[in-house]
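batch_manifest entry 22 of 60
target: PknH-like protein
source organism: Kitasatospora nipponensis
requested by: lab member K.T.
priority: normal
notes from requester: please return tokens only, no post-processing; we will run our own comparison against the previous entry in this batch. if the run fails, retry once and flag.
--- input ---
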Amino acid sequence: MPRRRPVLPPPLTALVLAALVPAAGCATVGPAPAGDRVTAAVAPRALSAAELRGAAVTGSDLGAGYTVSLLGPGQPAPSGSSGAAQRQVADVPACQPVLDAVGPADPGAAPQAEADLSVLRVAAPSSAGAGAGAVPLYTALLGYPAGRPAVLQTTLDQALARYTAFTSAPADPKAVTPTARGARTGHQLERADAPTPEGADAVTAFTLTSGPATGEGGGPALTQRAVVVRVGTVLAVFSTVGTAKEPAAVPDPVVVRAQTRKLRAAQG
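--- output ---
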């Protein structure tokens, strides 16, 4: 059954990756192999949706200043949601895994279990006297059969190693507004460094900057930062959103570390 996913503006949803098909049409860079960290001798087990929800971080795991909200199917993220967004299709299949990592993905490739949550951290007032602000972090916990997460993350790593720019269009042009119908989006892609937290098997991080493609008119640029952590049979996707003036923040390492520990413990 296709999933209804929580959304952010535009949505930062969970990771469901398509198979990588080498093709022309994207700007490319040289290969950059990614390594794995073996953390357990015992094969991890697949988790149910209930077990994933039970393994989600809570405010008590993170300490003062954090608020965690579990999101139900189809429930929008509480901060700045602008409604359901449309799935984007890349100009070539090889670039599709990046879009599927930070937006609505192919419903036919759904994980076997999923839990979604939003984490808000209230920033302390600055020395200049600025007021506190809530910094949202969307987190998706995606459960798969053993072995599948490694294949999916490798697919994403391969795309990030080769491509730096591409364009996309709505998968269903009839579902968008008349003014946006047929409009294409240009994307700039940059791989980022991220530490591998204790308990994780591998980590992939990147920044995606998106805006109207050349010749498609004006519009604000959006930045999205994502950290994809593989823990046994689970892919945990941590993502933030920003603008050209206020770029997306690095996903909070406190949340990433705490969530990784809980996922590893749940599979022990």
